[in-house]
Amino acid sequence: MCFEFDAIPPDLPPEVPRAAGGAAAEVLELTSADGTRFSAAFAGSADPHGPAIVIYPDVRGLYPFYIQLAERFAEAGHHAVAVDYFGRTAGLGPRDEDFEYVDHVKQTRSAQIQADTRAALDAVAERTGERRAVSVGFCFGGGESFLATTNQELQLAGAVGFYAGLDRSKWELEGPLDRAADMHGPLLGLFGGADQAITQDQIDDFSGRLDAAGVEHDFHVYPDAPHSFFDRKQEEYAEVSEDAWRRVLAFLDQVD
Fold it and tell me: Directed axis angle between helix 140-147 and helix 110-128, to 10°?
C-alpha cells in the first residue's frame, strides 16, 4: 500500500492564498460509459484560478486522505475530484481500513479508469464550467496519472505523479514504462530517493523513453525521502512535502 489509512495531506505552503470560505468535499455517485456506478469526491473552489484536478489515489482507492486532498486543492484555487477505481468489482466507496484491495487492483484496466475519469471530469464541468484538467496521482495512481495522457479523449493539460509505479508487471498490468512513447506532456514526477520500490534506474529508464518520444517532462528525486513521504504525520519530511506542493502548484500555473 502507499499511505497509512490515517494519513493526512500536508498543509499548503504558508505563502499560498487560501480561497475564502474553505472547501468541503462532497462524495458523488457517478456513472461511467459502460454503465458502472462508481464513487468520487468533489471539492469546488470558491476562488478558482487554474485547471481542475483529477486525483488518482493509491491502491486503497477513495479513502479519507484523498477526499481531504481534494479540499486542499480547492483551497489553493483548483476544483478537484478524486476517483475510486473499484466500482466494477467492489461497488461504491469510500473505502475503509479493512478494504482488501489486492484482488481488486489486479482487475483494474487503465481504459476503464480513464472512462471513469471522463465521467468525473464531465461532472466537474457541469458544476463549474471548467474543462481544463490536470491529473495528480500517487503510487499506483501516479502510474495511472501518466497513463491517462495517452488517452486523447481526456485532453489533459498535464499530469503529475507522486512516486508513480513505473513497472507494474507484479500486478500483471500495463505500466508507464510500456506506454512512454504514447504519452503527452507536460509531466511532473516527484520521487523519493530512498524508495525501494521505485529505483533510480527505473526513473532514468522512463525519462530516457520520454526523451526519445519528445515528451516534455520534469522529474525530481528527493534524496532521502521514502515512498509516501507526502504525509503531514511524517514530520521529518515536512520540508520535502512543502517543496513538493510548491512544485505542483507552479506546474499547474504553467499548463495551458
Answer: 80
**Which pTM value belongs to this model?**
0.97
Tell me, what's the pLDDT at 20? 59
Phi, psi of 108 (to 5 degrees): -70, 155
How far apart CA 150 and CA 111 sit, in angstroms, is: 10
Report d(CA 226, CA 161) in Å as an integer: 15
Q: Could you tell me the pLDDT band of residue 84, with boundaries at 50, 70 and 90?
A: very high
What structural domains does the chain harbor? 26-254 (3.40.50.1820)
Count of H helices and E strands in the chain? 8, 8
Contacts of 239 (CB under 8 A, 6+ apart): none
Q: What span, in angstroms and rounded, lies between the C-alpha atoms of 211 and 184?
A: 12
Contacts of 174 (CB under 8 A, 6+ apart): 110, 147, 168
Element (H, E) at 203: helix 200-213
DSSP annotation of 170: G
